[in-house]
From TrEMBL:
Superkingdom assignment: Bacteria
PROSITE patterns: 4FE4S_FER_2 (PS51379)
Species whose genome carries this gene: Slackia faecicanis
Protein name: 4Fe-4S ferredoxin-type domain-containing protein
InterPro entries named among the record's database cross-references: 4Fe4S_Fe-S-bd (IPR017896), Split_barrel_FMN-bd (IPR012349)
Lineage, broadest ranks: Bacteria, Bacillati, Actinomycetota, Coriobacteriia, Eggerthellales
Transmembrane intervals: none
Pfam families per the UniProt record, alphabetical: Fer4 (PF00037)
Gene3D superfamilies (alphabetical): 3.30.70.20, Electron Transport, Fmn-binding Protein, Chain A
4Fe-4S ferredoxin-type domain sequence ranges: 175-202, 204-232
Length: 232
């Protein structure tokens, strides 16, 4: 087993021990994410690589994925519909004794708003958007994603790596790790592309924290030296 895979396996085992149970089933996992953070920010990029973001609500989840509501008139919504990719971040109870922070990125498809509202976990789904002046709500299904859910209780934080929808992936996220080779010249181009901030460039070659890496591959794409490679 490669070092990165060993670290990831060890971290998952540690997280399971912290909760005193085995990993959650698929539906339980999504339901937990949906209930942890309700109000978030969704983001997408345009043709020039510039980001656009908007207010988003996590309405609920089912066997097909996580459902997110946004303002249909926003530039972000138009990009989500065109690009079919979303970054989703949010936090709840950041300054309270208990709370959670969510960070996901993945693939989306448009969903029927009426159907989403009919089974939404929150009875007031869409309330935050309407309070912000939104009169036309669009729904998206995040059907494949990777990221992290961080829950804090009583001064302790539990990090839960999140990956779902892998049966629809082109390549299995779990089956790969990104490492930096000796070709790295310390240019730091990869740092700005890492949403998780898990690349340590205090040394050359840089080092990727495998416990926090979501395997999105943005760092490898940004590397001018092609120093970041995939290890199966």
């Amino acid at each position: 087993m490669q070092p990165g895979r060993m670290q990831e396996a060890a971290f998952r085992a540690k997280a399971r021990r912290a909760e005193g149970r085995e990993p959650m089933e698929y539906l339980d996992d999504l339901a937990r994410i949906a209930s942890a953070v309700r109000v978030a920010a969704a983001a997408a990029v345009d043709d020039a690589g510039m980001p656009a973001s908007c207010l988003a609500e996590v309405a609920g989840a089912d066997g097909d994925g996580l459902y997110v509501l946004v303002d249909r008139e926003s530039e972000c919504c138009k990009l989500l519909a065109a690009r079919k990719c979303m970054a989703l971040t949010g936090a709840d109870g950041a300054f309270a004794d208990e709370g959670a922070a969510l960070s996901l990125r993945g693939r989306v498809e448009e969903a029927a708003l009426e159907a989403v509202l009919a089974f939404a976990d929150a009875p007031d789904a869409g309330a935050a958007l309407r309070a912000a002046g939104c009169t036309d709500i669009a729904a998206f299904r995040l059907y494949q994603a990777a990221g992290e859910l961080v829950e804090h209780r009583g001064g302790q934080a539990l990090r839960m790596p999140v990956r779902f929808g892998e049966e629809r992936m082109n390549a299995g996220v779990k089956a790969r790790s990104y490492i930096v080779t000796d070709e790295c010249d310390g240019c730091r181009a990869c740092v700005s592309k890492c949403a998780e901030g898990c690349i340590d460039v205090s040394m050359v070659p840089a080092v990727i924290d495998q416990e926090r890496c979501t395997r999105c591959g943005n760092c490898a794409t940004a590397c001018f030296q092609e120093a970041i490679i995939v290890v199966k």
